[in-house]
Design brief:
Layout: E1 2-10, E2 16-25, E3 30-34, H1 41-48, E4 56-61, E5 64-65, H2 74-78, E6 81-85, H3 96-105, H4 111-124, H5 140-152, E7 158-162, H6 170-185, E8 189-193, H7 197-203, E9 206-211, E10 214-219
Parallel strand pairs: 3-8, 3-9, 6-7, 7-8
Antiparallel strand pairs: 1-2, 1-4, 4-5, 9-10
Length: about 230
């Protein structure tokens, strides 16, 4: 589904965001991407949806070589990838329904498709009761649920979430992660970049840990921090 082979990302300043990354994420996996700020988490996600290009190495997503992808084909790639951000990114002058519908309108979806898909995905994220509300009338958790609905409305096989709980309280954060897990159970490949130790430790999923642009740990069932570095209990 997603493959990185010898991938590096360097900038003119000399900073290397990623070093010689080799990584495979299979279809239907759920993985957390962890590490300190500047470790390369967001760069990894941006490479997957071609918001950035590698300095060297090869990236394949759904059997497509992103290095060889033409600019005009990038929008078609992004239809296969839903992206959720920390700041929600909702349009303030549009209702919940209109925000989600907009994601289909920009790709030219038929009105009949929009009328069918939008209510369905709002029910999926437990926001079917607020279609006419505006973002400023919603809590942070509700706004994030709408953002997830927008990312899912085109039924993409891959969902990327960049710090999706960063602006939320612990209880609301847990609800968002449980929603992402529900989406994963339906068959979607989910990658979540996060600083939230409690959620990663509770979920016990695959953990990809980065430090200074390097993948330093890849555990199929892991915690935010490696057990070998835990301080002994008294």
């Amino acid at each position: 589904m997603i493959e990185f082979k010898d991938v590096c990302v360097s900038y003119a300043s000399g900073w290397q965001a990623l070093h010689n990354l080799n990584l495979t994420v299979e279809k239907g996996e759920f993985a957390f991407i962890v590490g300190p700020t500047g470790a390369g988490k967001s760069t990894l996600l941006k490479l997957i949806y071609r918001d950035e290009k590698p300095t060297q190495g090869t990236i394949r997503v759904s059997d497509q070589n992103l290095n060889e992808m033409r600019l005009r084909d990038i929008p078609f790639l992004r239809r296969k990838i839903g992206v959720v951000y920390q700041d929600f990114g909702l349009l303030p002058n549009k209702t919940v329904y209109e925000n989600v519908a907009f994601a289909l309108q920009v790709i030219g979806a038929a009105r009949s498709t929009i009328r069918k898909q939008v209510p369905h995905v709002l029910e999926l994220v437990a926001m079917g009761h607020r279609p006419d509300s505006f973002p400023n009338q919603l809590s942070g958790g509700e706004q994030q649920r709408v953002a997830i609905a927008r990312a899912l409305v085109n039924d993409p096989p891959i969902l990327l979430a960049d710090e999706p709980t960063g602006n939320l309280d612990p209880e609301t954060s847990m609800g968002i992660i449980q929603l992402l897990n529900h989406i994963h159970v339906r068959g979607t490949t989910v990658l979540v970049a996060t600083h939230d130790h409690a959620i990663v430790d509770m979920m016990q999923r695959r953990v990809l840990a980065f430090e200074r642009g390097k993948l330093v740990r890849d555990e199929l069932v892991g915690a935010y921090r490696s057990a070998e570095f835990e301080e002994p209990r008294p």
